[in-house]
UniProtKB/TrEMBL annotation:
It comes from Hibiscus sabdariffa. This is Thioesterase domain-containing protein. InterPro entries: ACOT13, HotDog_dom_sf, Thioestr_dom. Belongs to the thioesterase PaaI family. It holds the Pfam family 4HBT. Residues 67-123 form the Thioesterase domain.
Length: 158
């Protein structure tokens, strides 16, 4: 535990930088949250069809790890957000993620442009499944494949 605490400890310069940040309380429904601005800024939606979403994303410095690769946590976030968008129904609350299984097959570097596609696999009751593919747009290399399970209200059949 001490090693973790030491690893997470900020140096004096980083501590001063963080202390100068102003993070206003989020007003739900009125503005984007800090999370959205940090994690999702730059994600461009290119195509939306029922059960399908296609996006592009240029890897920014804020989401890279110490080796200059898109962080695996950022990839998991993309799978979660874009996977959920494929089964979103206007007028209903967003579904809640139940399970994600992600295969990390390659790496994306700073400034690489990624193509992200999400397809609904099906629905049984209130349970939905999607598959999300993250590819390098220039090379076609598959960076990650995610299977995403969600639970939530379904649209009325009336």
């Amino acid at each position: 535990m001490e090693k973790v605490k030491e690893f997470l400890k900020l140096d004096q310069e980083a501590e001063q930088t963080v202390s100068r940040l102003t993070v206003q309380p989020h007003r739900v429904g009125y503005e984007r949250s800090f999370y959205n601005e940090f994690a999702l800024r730059g994600l461009r939606v290119d195509r939306v069809e029922p059960g399908f979403v296609s996006c592009t994303f240029k890897v920014p410095p804020r989401l890279t790890d110490k080796n200059g690769n898109l962080a695996t946590g950022a990839i998991a976030n993309i799978v979660d957000e874009v996977g959920g968008a494929a089964v979103f129904v206007i007028g209903l609350p967003m579904k809640v993620s139940v399970d994600m299984c992600i295969s990390f097959l390659g790496t994306a570097k700073l400034d690489d442009e990624l193509e992200i596609s999400s397809k609904a696999l099906g629905q049984r009751g209130n349970y939905s499944g999607t598959i999300v593919l993250v590819r390098n747009k220039a090379t076609g290399e598959l960076i990650a494949e995610g299977r995403h399970s969600l639970f939530g209200e379904q649209s009325s059949k009336l």
